[in-house]
Amino acid sequence: MFKITSDDLAKKTDSQLAALFQEVAKGITPASPDRPAAQSLLAMIAAERAKRGPRP
Length: 56
Known about the structure:
Elements: H1 6-10, H2 14-27, H3 35-52
Helix pairs in contact: 2-3
């Protein structure tokens, strides 16, 4: 799976965050052993996008 920190996410563009979110979301399956890590990463990405706020 991915090893990404919140600092890594802060350096990504909005489009990169959206693409990463989609890639991680597609990789989650009920039987996946990495499911908890993937869900944590999705939450981190969502928090970073929320922190940036809406675009003007």
